[in-house]
Every structure is written in structure tokens, then in C-alpha cells.
Amino acid sequence: MVMTTNTNTTTNTSTTTNPSTTTAAAGAADAVGAGGTAVPGAARLDLAKSAPKVFRALIGFDAAAREGLDPALVELIQIRASHLNHCAYCLHMHTNDARKAGESEDRLHMVAVWREARHFFTPKEQAALALTEAVTLVADAGVPDDVYAEAAAHFDDQELGHVLALIFAINTWNRVALSTAKVAGTDERR
Known about the structure:
By secondary structure, the protein is mostly helical. The protein has ten helices and two strands. 58% of the residues lie in helices and 2% in strands. Helix 7 packs antiparallel against helix 9.
């Protein structure tokens, strides 16, 4: 996932405005209401503009992580992590990318419940999805040895390193999108 700017902001009256008609200064002025509390829907930081070196580093990390991995597997990992992190922006983006890459609707609908629909996924994909869940939810139970061992049985060391890096990358992108209030349906990649 590569993001640039938030294309839609919501005003205090819950109407959507286009940023081409609203200045960044006006959005920033609305960000804090009376008493210093944050106003829901106010414009948030654009990481690409505010921290361009950091943003470019994330893009580079993401690109390096996916090198050599099957593009379908890349999207499945990104979709599952985005489900778990409740990141609608990334989920919308990566399900669309998967469709464009030829992924079936049936498989896309089953990613969230892959354990109950294993026949839709190869054993290698199942191992990657289980590892994605464990790493994404690492604070809950760590990464169990059996989950790691199953992934290691399906990926060589280089592939496993890339799968792990991809999981780290999508979790970072999910946090960027959620923290900066990216709006689902506004794919901001250039």
C-alpha cells in the first residue's frame, strides 16, 4: 500500500467536502474544538508531506518485502492483516488490487474465515494466513511455535523473511491509515 494524501475530510456537520475547496489551514483550524478536544472528522496529518523521508522509507520497505513473493499471496496477507486491524482503507485497496490481479470473489469472501473454508486456500497460503494472524495479534499470544514451524515448512528462509517483512509492512500501513483517518474508497496511490 502506498498512500499520499487524504482526499476526503468530514466537517463538524458530518458533510463530506473536497479538499480542493477546503484549505489545509482551515482543516487544521477545525482539528481542535472548545476545551482543546479533538473534533471528529477534522483533517489529519499527511505523513507523506510531513515526514517524506519516513514515508519513502516505508514505501521502500514495502517494495523490498514483496520481492519474489507470489502477488496473490501478497494480497491475501495484506487483506487478512487489514481485517484484523479493522483498516477499511487498506482492505478496500487490497481487495481491489487482488481482483485486478485475477483473484476470485469466492476466495476474497473467504479470507476472513479461512480456517472454516480451508479448501479455498493452498496449504502454503493457510500457513501464511496463520502467520499473518499471529504476527498481527502478537500482543495476544506471541507467535506460537507451531504456527512459525508450519510457515517455515512451506517457505524457504528467504521467502519466510519476505513474508514476515510483508506482514510487518501491512501492519505499519494499517496504523498509518487508521492514525491519519484515511477514508475507504479513496485509493491515494500515484
